[in-house]
């Protein structure tokens, strides 16, 4: 009898509490449980970690400044030798190392002679180099950089241009809407190429777009560039023709009358420069012009331990004498082609 009274009192008290809002109804419990599950799902949603990060050494606007790279494991790497050329298994997208963000002037590039090839600013006559603004342009008119694990062999004469390679990784211009950051590693789709002839050397400029760009799904070849980016190819050729004229150099020339080649042609050229790079990184002896120090190419005699790579970073120069950037860097140069 006592048990029955106790049980009745318990249910009666729960009913009063529920009416008073002190205990949630079963539907409220379900709703709250559902909300809790959703919150937990958000908390446990996979976090996409960047594959690469950069470390600055030395003072900006000094000859000591350099930008080193690390992989997702925190190991110091070479952006030229340790970042894969291909960004997917199908080998249809490529990794691009951004050296110069759009609309900037500092001539930054992968340092070929420095071990682990950090990005450094080019030096001309002892001074940091800046690219001139040729009206109506401001600095570089696209994100500019290089494809890793490529090399334009200076001992190879390219049959289509009749000129030898320029001894650099192959250059890329990325035409998407986003202004990238120096040191970004972008996944890009190749659309075509133009062939600059720079002081008698073939200097390919691969035209590409970030795969995450809103227009990436619509542009697949060089003809699509004219459709979705009208005027950009013409402006690109003009830019390369005239950008050295303010420094007292002649107008640059192009193979193929400045016409762009399609994506198939471009990917063939990239594959060729990748083979040249493979020969370079696996060659015996030390190159006088390019450091092939790396941590991932196990068949290369230039591979080093990750601890040694970390030591190279720690020993990189700090500080440095900062150069005052002259306001003449912002000068507009009005160039008239003949």
Automatic annotation (TrEMBL):
Primary residence: cytoplasm
InterPro entries documented for this protein: Pyrophosphatase, Pyrophosphatase_sf
Cofactor(s), by name: Mg(2+)
Keywords: Cytoplasm, Hydrolase, Magnesium, Metal-binding
Gene Ontology CC annotations of this record: cytoplasm
GO MF term set: inorganic diphosphate phosphatase activity; magnesium ion binding
Keyword Metal-binding applies: yes
CDD domains: pyrophosphatase (cd00412)
A GO biological-process term: phosphate-containing compound metabolic process
EC number(s) from the headed UniProt entry: 3.6.1.1
Compartments (UniProt record): Cytoplasm
Entry's family note: Belongs to the PPase family.
PANTHER family the record matches: INORGANIC PYROPHOSPHATASE (PTHR10286)
Protein's UniProt name: Inorganic pyrophosphatase
């Amino acid at each position: 009898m006592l048990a029955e009274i106790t049980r009745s009192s318990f249910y009666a008290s729960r009913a009063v509490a529920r009416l008073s809002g002190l205990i949630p109804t079963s539907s409220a419990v379900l709703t709250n449980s559902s909300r809790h599950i959703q919150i937990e799902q958000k908390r446990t949603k996979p976090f996409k970690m960047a594959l690469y990060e950069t470390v600055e050494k030395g003072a900006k606007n000094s000859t000591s400044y350099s930008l080193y790279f690390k992989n997702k494991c925190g190991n110091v790497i070479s952006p030229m030798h340790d970042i894969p050329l291909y960004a997917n298994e199908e080998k249809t997208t490529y990794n691009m190392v951004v050296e110069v963000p759009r609309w900037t002037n500092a001539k930054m590039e992968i340092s070929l002679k420095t071990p682990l090839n950090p990005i450094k600013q080019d030096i001309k006559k002892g001074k940091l180099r800046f690219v001139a603004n040729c009206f109506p342009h401001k600095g570089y008119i696209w994100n500019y950089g290089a494809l890793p694990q490529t090399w334009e062999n200076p001992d190879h004469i390219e049959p289509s241009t009749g000129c030898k390679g320029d001894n650099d990784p192959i250059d890329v211009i990325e035409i998407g809407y986003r202004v990238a950051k120096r040191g970004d590693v972008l996944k890009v789709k190749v659309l075509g190429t133009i062939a600059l002839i720079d002081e008698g050397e073939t200097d390919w400029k691969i035209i590409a777009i970030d795969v995450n760009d809103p227009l990436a799904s619509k542009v697949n070849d060089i003809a699509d560039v004219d459709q979705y980016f009208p005027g950009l190819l013409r402006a690109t050729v003009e830019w390369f023709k005239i950008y050295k004229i303010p420094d007292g150099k002649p107008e640059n020339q192009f193979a193929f009358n400045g016409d762009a080649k399609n994506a198939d042609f471009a990917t063939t050229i990239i594959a060729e420069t990748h083979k040249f790079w493979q020969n370079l990184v696996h060659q015996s002896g030390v190159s006088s012009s390019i450091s092939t120090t790396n941590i991932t190419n196990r068949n290369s005699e230039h591979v080093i331990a990750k601890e040694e790579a970390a030591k190279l970073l720690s020993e990189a120069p700090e500080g440095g004498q900062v150069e005052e950037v002259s306001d003449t860097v912002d000068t507009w140069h009005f160039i008239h082609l003949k």
